[in-house]
Amino acid sequence: MIDAAWLLIAIPLLGAAVLLLAGRRSNAWGHWLGVATSGASFVVAALVLVALLGRDASDRVVDVNLFDWIDAGPLTVEAGLRIDPLSLTFVLLVTFVGTLIHVYSVAYMEHDADRRRFFAYLNLFVAAMLLLVLADSYLLLFVGWEGVGLASYLLIGFWNHVPANATAAKKAFIVNRVADVGMIVALMLMFNTFGALDFSTVLTEAPGISDEGTLTAIALMLLVAACGKSAQFPLQSWLGDAMAGPTPVSALIHAATMVTAGVYLVVRSGPIFTGAPDALLVTAIIGAITLLFGAIVGCAKDDIKKALAASTMSQIGYMMLAAGLGPIGYAFAIFHLITHGFFKAGMFLGAGSVMHGMDDDVNMRHYGALSKFMKITWVTFGLGWLAILGIPPFSGFWSKDKIIESAFAAGEGHGWQPWVFGMVALVGAGITAFYMSRLFFMTFYGDKRWTKDLSDGSELPVRHPHESPALMTWPMIILAVGSAGLGGVLAIGGGFTTWLEPVTGHVAHHDPVLPIPVIVVTTIVLVLIGAFLAWRQYAASAVPLTPPHGTPLTRAARVDLYQDAVNENLFMRPGQYLTRSLVYLDKRVVDGAFMGLAGMLALIGAGVKRMQNGFVRSYAAMMLAGFLVLVVVVLFVWN
Amino acid sequence: MIAQAAQTAAAAGTFVAPEVAWFALTPLIIVISAGVLGVLVESFVPAAHRRTVQVVMTMVALAAAFAVIVWQGVTWLGEGGPGGVVVFGGVLQLDGVALLFQGTIVLMAFFALAVVVDRTAVKQDAFTPSAASIPGSEHEELARRLGLVQTEVYPLLMFAVGGMMIFPAAGDLLTMFIALEVLSLPLYVLSGMARRRRLLSQEASFKYFVLGAFASAVFLFGAALLYGYSGSVRFDAIGRISGAVAQGGAPENWELLWLVGILMVISGLLFKVGAVPFQAWTPDVYQGAPTPITGFMAACTKVAAFGALLRLIYTGGFSGSIDMLEAVKVALWVVAIATMIVGTVVGATQTDIKRMLGYSSIAHAGFVLVGILSFNNAGIKAVIFYLLAYSLATIGAFAVITLVRETGPGGEVLGEATHLGQWAGLGRRSPWLATCFSIFLLSFAGIPLTAGFIAKFTAFSAAVEGSPLLGSGTVLAVIGVLASAVAVFFYIRVIVIMFFMPPTETVTEVVEVAEVPAEVLVGGEQIAMNPAQTSVVVATGAPAVVVVRSEGLSAATISIMAAGVLLLGIVPAPVLDLIARVTDVG
Predict the structure, then answer these.
(1) Do B348 and A608 touch (CB under 8 A)?
(2) ipTM for the complex?
(3) Inter-chain residue contact A609 with B346, CB threshold 8 Å
(4) pTM (2 d.p.)
């Protein structure tokens, strides 16, 4: 079965091809084909899982060679797939959550004229994402990496008749190009260092490289790539805007799977990072900054999807932090990635369901008391909320708590690192509880704000919140079950970390600087305080329809802590001036020279053309004259 | 050796029949017999069946000739020995190179013939119903109404192909001259047989004939001088004498005979390939001749003439003292540069698609000369590959032109719409045709993934190989690359016109507005285009343009040629290897 793993990628790719090539003819059944290919991929993944479980733990890294891809002098790359616990974990997440979201989209996109195209892109995304995680070389991974980037671009700008959406798509694309440069440089460095790009060579030989500087350079370049894809500081600016895409896209690509590819890249490149402690530290620092950054931004957003996006950014910050802690954190990063994939996708689908009932309004200040009207959405969202808060025994508790514990054990438990990273992770948990509860209470509790007069005298349109159809609620229910129980199940006896050991390696844990029970209790207390504060402000008291002026921090957080302003002034403006001056140079100097040359050629052409006058006598004379010139040349040279 | 045997036999007073390498001659015999039979068909087969008989016979003959050539090649390669066969004591040199040239000529002639045969959906071929009638006369009108067909076209084509096959295999000056005449005379006649614009066609024919006769005279005079110099017309003998002269002992300035003689012979050949300063006939004749004939002429004649030039230069005829060689090389060097520059620069100012391709063929002659001037083995291979690539695209391109027609006021299909402005919007009207044409143009331009790129690359790298930096070969290659860059302009311009301009309904007046650079006016609309724009089209009211359906043969030819161009561009290695193996054997 493992040899047939290429089917995982081939099936959704075929689906995308059929949907795109068949065009309008497939409008009637296209969405079901999309669901079927994604589902078939999941079935294959499950079979591969069974096959892999049938092997010894030491024998669970399998490279499947597909064909010789590039054979260019010293560079030989074979296209192949690496089936191991890490890639298979991702495959299962992508195909399972992906299939649920496909089903959800059938109903969510029902009234969209381009539903078939939407499913084609979703299938394309699934294929590219699976290629990304299954590739057995960095080069093939890069193909998938670009593929998901393309799918992301197409889906963010899916409703590109609205200019803002097209701009958002472009922004995501451009920021990711910056990250790609990091990836490409990393590929070059690898080729220079190892003479190969396949995992088996690079990752096996990496620990043997004595030159730590080279490894650090490669790792940092990979980190740049990871930061772009996973919306980590300082390349995070695109994720909020990416919410312009349809909500299922936000759930699948910009919450559960694609944005976590950066974490995958770091964990996959573990041997490189392990050999470069400086790069690991940078990774941890970036994770810590982003987790606070996202949490703070999340507290101020009134747009439900943007608040969730900020939360995604923050949660991936946790994963990056864990990955940055080195081998002890790799497995926890992936663990949190999986649980997060479930509860965040579930909450995004819930948000989509709310928007569905609220005429696509995303402003939470226009919500309130929806728990009475959308019972299933409320319960499923609530389970996701409990999970992300980290309340035991819900999923998030098991994974996030491990990260906080590991953070307190950073730097082998000495120096400043455990305290700083530990406290950041701890405080982050408290803030997370606040903003997620704010979101939850503003949406489902309090008084109905969707019938009120606005301060400017106008009235909100009359709304009839209602529960979504079964095709939408069932995926939410399934994901909610996962949000509630998956973490606990996987955590039994450290099962998940053991499962990943063939990839991450087995590492002895250091003791945290604080006793584990203290950490757990403190975390839970902080979370409860955060949730209580949110309840007092957003459920127990009235929420104003227009945002209050707020503190300077709130105002800064509303504009994403000035990240766009910084990018604009630091990169965009100077870039514009540079291009303008280059355009000027091009017009004056390059075009000038070219036009001059062209003008000269045109003159010569016109001159010679005049000799082509149609008279045979002139032609014959020309031949004679030309021949005489040749004779003169020959005699001249001969003498 | 055979000659010696004959001499000893003659001395002994007995007659010994010469040995004839019948197998080696078979392709030639097939093609020329088809021509002779074709003349008989004209006399004896009823008019109603003549066309069918001629078409079948000529196509079968060409196919059979090609099959035999392949068979010969396989046999010789299989033996692994020297494939060359010397026929009639050296009159013909049927070696590997000759075989490759003959194969290319016959194959391309086959496809050119397919285009000639295709009468399109209009059911009229490209030839006048009665070539002997005066244009516009009652006689012509009568012939048209009776639906006469000039099936003499087919035997004429066969004779031309026969001459072309002898041309690159000739072992002496007289055989070469006879081949030159055998291939030229039918072409002069064919050029004058266009169905439409007959005056233009007859003018082209006459010009071609007069200038061709002039060039033949030059060739013949050069041959006489070389005979005077060496006492023989055989290339190897001339080479031997040159060697002896270089040793000393000859009268003073004896080399002058060789120098002027070889220059005149080369000039005669350069006329056929259309190199500067002997290029003047090319645009006029290409424009006037019936388009299928133009395609045939542009592809096959060029292949044959370059084959002859290679034969002359590389087998003995071109040996002598170093100084003598250098002198002629410099002359050819000047010719190559001038040809590339004139072909591209003047080509860029053309507004008629057939004239444009005429100039393009001049430029290509220059590029092939670059390959020839490398004077190494790589050069020979490059020349052969270049000619193959060039003729594929040429036959395809002219086949496309036969299908793009003007229509009269009543909607009847008229002659070809050769003005560039009329091609506007072809990409929308007939995407397949326009795409194929674009492939041919891109190959002419030498864009990667087409045969033209590989051809230019091999030719230029052959020139650079062995040439010192700033040496003559490098300079040629640099000028060649620059000329190619300029040429890209006028090829891409056609693609832009076809795909990115709205179709013009009607075109009567064509005005050149050189003072409006950077823009093109179509139907009063300004469209920004390449800043080097030199000719501009203003279109107002008249014949509309249609794409006629082919009977199948033209369409198939276009597809095969386009596929060939792409195939040779993407996987050139098998063909390059084949050329290398055959040339090494021969």
Answers:
(1) no
(2) 0.87
(3) yes
(4) 0.67
